[in-house]
Amino acid sequence: MQVQQNNRSFESVTVNPEWCFNNVRSVEQWTHGYHRYPAKFLPNLVKKLIEEYTDKNDLIVDLFAGCGTTLVEAKVHGRKSIGVDINPVAELITKAKINPIEPDRLDKQFDLLVESFDSFNFKDYVNIAVHERIDYWFTKEHKAKIAFLYDKILTLQDKSVKDFFLVSLSHVLKNCSKWLQSSTKPQIDPKKNPSDPFTAFQSHTKKMIKKNIEFYKQLSEKKYLDTKCEIRLEDARNTSIRANSVGAIITSPPYVTSYEYADIHQLTAYWYDYITDLSGFRKNFIGTFYSLNQEITCDSTIGQEIINSLLKKDMRTAKEVANYFNDMYAVAKEMHRVIKKNGHACLVIGNTTFKNVKVKSAEVFAEILTLLGFEMVEIIKRSIPYKLIPTIRDKKSGRFSKLKNKDSKLVYPEEYILIAKKV
Ligand SMILES: C[S@@+](CC[C@H](N)C(=O)[O-])C[C@H]1O[C@@H](n2cnc3c(N)ncnc32)[C@H](O)[C@@H]1O
Questions:
Q1: Which residues form ligand 1's pocket by a CB distance below 6 Å?
Q2: Ligand 1 mean position to 406 CA, how many Å?
Q3: Which residue among 36, 72, 86 has the greatest number of ligand 1 atoms within 8 angstroms of its CB, and so is best to mutate?
Q4: In 223-277, where does DSSP find H-type helix?
Q5: I want to staple 324 with a disulfide (CB 3.0 to 4.6 A). Which of 79, 105, 256, 395 is the partner?
Q6: Ligand 1 center to residue 66 CA distance, Å?
Q7: Looking at residue 241, which CATH number applies to its domain?
Q8: Is residue 113 part of a domain?
Q9: What's the pLDDT tens digit per position in 37-88?
Q10: Strands 59-62 and 246-251
Q11: Model-wide pTM > 0.90
Q12: For 375-406, how does the pLDDT look when each residue is reduced to its tens digit (9 = 90+)?
């Protein structure tokens, strides 16, 4: 659909079935299934964007790379790519997912690691100090086994193999802890029987090994093993990417106060020494509930109307949304800096409702892009067939919740793909 500028509402845009991928399961292909990650991209969607909006020699960038879906797909298509994310756990997962390992080498290291389990002695690890939060989430026995496993992995010389096993261990930490399995919120499940770390690690690593073989084979057959692909631990508002160098940005920004990535990834972050306290870790995440910013104005007219409506209902929510729109403005500016002339920005973004006010993030983003010198090329609406993001919010708190909660309300059943061109 060709669009006119200054679109105030995308509600009349109809769902485009070509972008819904109702019966296509691509989430387990290649290395995509290595680690759970909230609001992960559907790989098919990224594949289609790459095929329709990029050329062979284009550099593809994802400024909110998360667990690296865009980068994996870029590599499969033989396109150079750079990902950026503020979350060190995302950086680790992505590194492992984009760097397939020569299968025999990996097998050997895995066998050695599993053999070493026989030397585990609970007494050697019973009193080790990691972090008080680790003692909160894990039983003594499981904590000791994880500490042992972590030590063994750290002694490995091969960086790619080390990252591969660290990702496997990171993925199973939740299963081995008391964390309520079905929840992205940090809460203890008093009835849970946590998995044994050695068993869970072995089982998940075996699945990853199979996927590594497929990915390695595909890339070596296509001669894409050395295609440039890197992840940078940076802020999307201020990156080290060269100006005017990017053919296409394919990204999905964080939603406003929905996922607290810092909280969700705390088990890995504490175990792997990425953080010592959560509050410092949280504050650089865009869309966080814990932002310290106090603005109530923004540069988008549509955004300002939304903030004004929220101000009448609740100051705190109004500030959160204003912060979010201002962060989006800074990200759009960075996009404009790095994209080359005629290059595309492809953004996947959903709208939501807070306190009965429609927070039209997609419309706001489109307005900001236009203000900054992009031309809107297409606005695609898609329904979300897979539960990659929850579609329920608590009406009172605005946080994601369970359907059975009587205060819950449907959000994000549809999302938009905005395609803008730098003119
Ligand atoms: C919706 S997720 C992206 C998921 C990704 N498309 C995937 O397939 O995994 C949003 C990401 O934005 C990241 N993020 C939040 N604030 C950021 C910032 N200031 N700079 C860079 N990344 C940020 C979060 O860590 C999270 O990984």
A1: 37, 39-41, 64, 66-67, 69, 84-87, 90, 235-236, 252, 254, 261, 284-286
A2: 30
A3: 86
A4: 261-264, 266-271
A5: 256
A6: 5
A7: 3.40.50.150
A8: yes
A9: 999 999 999 999 999 999 999 999 999 999 999 999 999 999 999 999 999 9
A10: parallel
A11: yes
A12: 999 999 999 865 444 555 555 555 655 555 55
